[in-house]
Amino acid sequence: MVGTNPPTMNSSVNITDKETCSPEAQHMSLAVILCVAYLLGLLLNTFSLWVFTRHLLQWNSGAVLQFNLALSDAIIAPLTPLMAVYFALDSNWIFGNFACQLKIAVLSIHFNGSVIFLMLISIHRYVSVVHFNRSSQMKRKSFVKKLCAVIWFVLIVTGSIYAMLLPVTNEENHRQCLTIHQGILTDAYFIINFVNLFFSCILPISITLFCYGRLARSVSRINVNSFQGQTVKIKSMRMIGICLVIFVLCFLPLNVVRTIGVIMKKYYPKKCRILLHLQTAYYVCYVLAGVNCCLDPLIYFFGSSNFIKAFKNFLGAVGIWRSVENKIESETVSQMGNRNNTFTVS
């Protein structure tokens, strides 16, 4: 028995403190949930884009920002099957270097674009409600269009740079694409992560919290006795709630886990078991981040009266809204009849 102890200890050391960490297969549920989340997001955002382009007759600056948010959410969906197959094949990328670089560029544009446009929507809502009687560039559609064009240019350039800096590598007989196991890219991941952490997490969340903090304080003083005041208050509070949920649930965990992962990979590269757990946690947060594609359309429904009107007009055109209204009307008449019968019996 004594003679068997040293090999056991050595094998334990080899598993936890070896030079490189082999990629670990992820549970198939991650791939399934990922596909479901992004497919639902694709349907919702494609429908939103269709309503914006075909049924929204008058666009203001807020509608321009919401359209660009929906566009940044929709572009990631076509690459989702590739990522699902990647999970299913034990984290082995079989689609070549160009597809990997395209995936990295589109992911960067998607996540960074979603955060930036959410931040701009927060600023626009703050300016429109808190400083409603002041002129501002954010209220001008022409300025917002130019601003969105500049943002898309920066997003595309940044995503292309990230794609060139992070090619496919061979690690333990696995072709790796955008994973923590790419040892030769550790320094690149470390730098890119902290650039993204500041510009795509800390700064946008700080600005959003400031805007919604001031907005909540201003909304709390609105006179709810008037219909207009009550409408503005309800709409603003819904916007605050949805945006904060998206930031806290979808983007914050992803940035926190990724930051811990790159730090561990750079300074503790032999802690394989911890790195493998962090990899799984990152993929889970990645799936959570994909949920933002399903939550963002709520902003259009709750934040834009023009979008709601356009949505109702669409439902009316296909006969759905009219049937819903008839059903509501018939239920109301039925309830009134029941009340009258009750009063008669009494």
Automatic annotation (TrEMBL):
Keywords from the UniProt entry: Cell membrane, G-protein coupled receptor, Membrane, Receptor, Transducer, Transmembrane, Transmembrane helix
Transmembrane segments: 30-52, 64-89, 109-127, 147-168, 188-212, 239-261, 281-302
GO cellular component, one term: plasma membrane
One Gene Ontology MF term: G protein-coupled receptor activity
Residue stretches making up the G-protein coupled receptors family 1 profile domain: 44-300
PANTHER family attached to this UniProt entry: P2Y PURINOCEPTOR 4-LIKE, PURINOCEPTOR-RELATED G-PROTEIN COUPLED RECEPTOR
Protein name: G-protein coupled receptors family 1 profile domain-containing protein
Species in which this protein is naturally found: Danionella cerebrum
